[in-house]
Amino acid sequence: MASIGVVTPQSMHFDAPLPLRSGAALRDYTLVYETYGTLNAARSNAVLVCHALNASHHVAGHYAGQAQDAGWWDNLVGPGKPLDTDLLYVIGVNNPGSCFGSTGPMSPNPDAPGQPYGADFPVVTVEDWVDAQARLLDGLGITQLAAVIGGSLGGMQALAWTLRHPQRVRHCVAVATAPSLSAENIAFNEVARRAIVTDPDFHGGHYQRHGAVPKRGLRLARMIGHITYLSDDVMNTKFGRALRNGELSFSTQDVEFQIESYLRHQADKFAEYFDANTYLLITRALDYFDPAREAGGDLVRAFAPALNNRFLLVSFSTDWRFAPARSREIVKALVDNRIDVSYAEIDAPHGHDAFLLDDARYHGVLRAYFERVAAESR
Amino acid sequence: MASIGVVTPQSMHFDAPLPLRSGAALRDYTLVYETYGTLNAARSNAVLVCHALNASHHVAGHYAGQAQDAGWWDNLVGPGKPLDTDLLYVIGVNNPGSCFGSTGPMSPNPDAPGQPYGADFPVVTVEDWVDAQARLLDGLGITQLAAVIGGSLGGMQALAWTLRHPQRVRHCVAVATAPSLSAENIAFNEVARRAIVTDPDFHGGHYQRHGAVPKRGLRLARMIGHITYLSDDVMNTKFGRALRNGELSFSTQDVEFQIESYLRHQADKFAEYFDANTYLLITRALDYFDPAREAGGDLVRAFAPALNNRFLLVSFSTDWRFAPARSREIVKALVDNRIDVSYAEIDAPHGHDAFLLDDARYHGVLRAYFERVAAESR
Known about the structure:
The structure is a homodimer.
Chain A: E1 10-14, E2 18-19, E3 25-26, E4 29-36, E5 46-50, E6 77-78, E7 83-84, E8 89-93, H1 126-140, E9 145-151, H2 153-164, E10 169-175, H3 183-197, H4 215-229, H5 232-238, H6 258-273, H7 276-288, H8 291-294, H9 299-302, E11 310-316, H10 324-336, E12 340-346, H11 360-377
Parallel strand pairs in A: 5-8, 5-9, 6-7, 9-10, 10-11, 11-12
Antiparallel strand pairs in A: 1-4, 2-3, 4-8
Helix pairs in contact in A: 1-2, 3-4, 3-7, 4-6
C-alpha cells in the first residue's frame, strides 16, 4: 500500500486563553497539525488522531527529502490503508505541553520575556488537550468528527472526547488504553519523573536557562518506559539472555547482555530529542486521567454523556501496561449504559507496543470499522 | 510463637584466597554469620539460610537493646517455627560483596593501602558465594547440611549448592526463584545500575574516596526494585489511586498519590544504609546465574550432579518477577532427572515479596517439609 507521500505541517494560533482543569490558563498558544486526504463538501469525513507520550502531529507520510522518516502511524493511515485517506480526512495534532512544535515548556513564556516556560508551563490534562483539539476543529470549520482515534494516552483522549464534546464526534476508537492508571502504572511514571527531577542538570525545570539538558534522567525515564511497552515474551524472543560479545566479561558497568545494549541505545536516542519538562507533564496527564473519579467513583455514570456515541475498543493479550482487563472495564461501563460498543482483544506477542505495529488481525478490525465510518460519512 | 531472642553476630576470617568464576580471586576475607539453635552431636542438623539482594546474615532474633529490629526471616526461624530452632541448627551468613559486615566494596583494599575496594572489588557470582559458604561450614566443622534454603537470589544459591557441592547437602528448599533471569529481569537490573553509575556522586565507583554517596541513584534503584517486588493487585489494594492530600494539587514534581509517597519513603530509607557498589555486584550476580548455559543450554543436564539431593520448590501466583512458570522449569528439569522434588504453588496476592511474609499456606508447606528434614537429622 502506498504512503500518503510528502506532507507539510501547518500551524494555527489561538489568541484566547485556554482554561485548564487546574484552574490556570494557557495564554495565547499555537497548535501544529497535519491533515491527510480531503475534507468532503459536507465536512463529515474528518477523523482526529490523538497522540501518546512521545509522538506528535506527524502521523503519516514524510517530509520533503526525509522519505525514511515516516509518521508514527504511517502503517495505518494512507490511501487504501485501514484509515483510508481516499475516503477520510485525517487530522494529526501536537498537544500543548509537548515538544514537537505546539506551545510547550520550550516555548517563550509570555510572563517572563526572553525566557522559555520551562517548569512554569502549566499542568495540562487529557481534558485540556481535548478542548484545545476542539478549538482546532473550530478553526478548520469541522463541527463534528466522523471519528476520533488514539492508542494508549491517545485512547484516553479519544474517550474524553465522548465525555466533554459528545455531540462533536460520532465514533470513538480507543486502542490499548485504560479508564485510569493503576497504582503500578503511576509508580513507574513516578520513578521516571524522579530520575529527571533529581538529575543535577534539571535545575528545577529551568535547565534551558542554564544551558543544560537533564539527559541522564531522560535516559533512565526512557529505559523504564521501554521495558513497560514490551512484553516479557517478546523481550525473551528478541534478546533473551544473548551476550553482546558471545562470552561473559564479568563487569558491573559494561554492557554484557544484548538487552542492555538495546536499552542504552534507545535511551541515548530519546535523550537527544525529547524535552524533560514535557516528559513530566505528559506522565502527569496520564496519572490524572480518571473520569470515574469525577463521577463519584462510578465509571458507568462517567460515560452517561456518551449515550449517542459508538465505540470500538481494542486491547492486546500481552499488554501488561494497559492490560485487556482495563479495556474490559470500559466496555462494561459502556454496555451498562446501553451504549453501542465493539471490542476486539487481539492475541499479539508485542505487549503495549502492539498498538503501533502492523498486525494483520488488529489492522483487519480497524479496516472493517473504518469502512463503516467512511460509508456513513459520505 | 516465641522469637529466638537476643542473638550476636560472629565472624570468621579466611587467609586463603577465594578463587572466583571470573578468574580473579578474593584475597583474605571475613564472613559475618549468625547461628540459631544447637548443632547436635552428629553435626547432622545444620540448615544454611542464603540471603537475597538487600538482606544479610541477620535472619532471626534481634540484637541486645534492639528488640524492634528482628531478623529478615524471623517469622520463619525460631523455636516452634517452621524452621524450628529447637530441632535444627540454623546458620545465616552475609555474602562477600555485600555491605553488612562480610568483606565487600566498603572494606579496605589490600592492594591499595588506606583505600576501600570501591569499584575494584571483584565481580562475585552465586557460585562464588556458595564456595565461600562451604568454607564457613568447614570452619564450623559441618561436613553435610541437612538443608539449604533461600528465596529469590537466595534460592539460586540453594540450587547452586546441589550443583557444586551435592554431597554436602541433603535437602534444597528454593523459594520464589528462577533457573536464570529473563531479559525483562535483566532490563530492570540494568536501569537500576545505570541510575547508580550515572549519578555524578558515583565517581566511577570510588565515591568513598570523594566523601560522596550516590544516593540519587540508590533511591531510583530501590524504587524500581520495589515495584517489581509487589504485584499490581497488592499495589492497587494498598494504595490504588488514593491521593496524599485528598485532592489534586496539579503538580509534576510534588507528591500527589499515596503510592508516590510510599516509594519515595522506601527509597530514602534504602539510600541511607545500602552500598551502591554492592547493588551493582548483587544485581550482576543475579544476571549471571544460569546453570543451563554451563551445560550447553540444557537445564536437565545442568541438574545431573544433584541426583541424590531432594528438593522443595515454592512459588507464588502473583510473583511476576520470578513467576511460577520459572519454578516449573526447574521442577521439570529435576523430574526429567528422576530427582525427588516437591513443588508448591501458593496462591498469594503479594507478588515476589510473598516469600518474606507469614502466609499460612506457605509456612504450612515449609513446616511440613522441615519436620521431615528434622526427623531425618536426629
